[in-house]
Amino acid sequence: MIEMPENKWSNWGDNNQELLSKIPEKPGVYMMHASMKILFIGGSQNMKKSITETLEKKCVTKATRIRFREENNFDEIKNKLIVEYKKRHEGNIPQCMN
User: Fold this and answer.
1) Measured between alpha carbons, how far is residue 79 from residues 6, 15, 30, 50 in Å?
2) Which residues touch 34 (CB under 8 Å, ≥6 apart)?
3) Separation CA 49–CA 20 (nearest Å)
4) Is residue 46 packed enough to be buried (19+ CB in 10 Å), middle (13-18) or exposed (0-12)?
5) Which of 9, 61, 69, 86 has the CA that lies 20 to 30 A from 19?
């Protein structure tokens, strides 16, 4: 199990079974990218389950790296992350969130 101080992101990890096995079944937020482009920003009551399900979506299957952080108020943090992303990308959201 990866121990993280509260509100601290994990390192970006390779999208593989080893990383997926370390994602906690706890509330939190997560991001996925490929070629340094954020594909998806998500949050849920159970990060492990949500990340696994999200990776089954066609657009997200190309995600090469994932990072996550435990967060009880995951919806609020996810929304803030999306707002920040849109400010840096001309109002667009990550391509796999359309």
Assistant:
1) 18, 23, 12, 16
2) 62, 63, 64, 65
3) 10
4) middle
5) 86
If one compares 7 and 42, the residue with the highest pLDDT of the two is: 42
Which is it for strands 28-34 and 65-70: parallel, antiparallel or unpaired?
antiparallel
Residue 93: left if φ>0, alpha if ψ -120 to 50, beta else—which one?
A: beta
**Side chain identity at 36, as an amino acid letter?**
M
Alpha-carbon span 55 to 32, nearest angstrom: 9
Contact 40, 32 (CB under 8 A): yes
> What three-state secondary structure class fits 16?
coil
Domain ranges of the chain: 13-97
CA atoms within 13 A on the CB side of 18: 3
Q: What is the pLDDT of residues 38-71, one digit of tens each?
A: 999 999 999 999 999 999 999 999 999 999 999 9
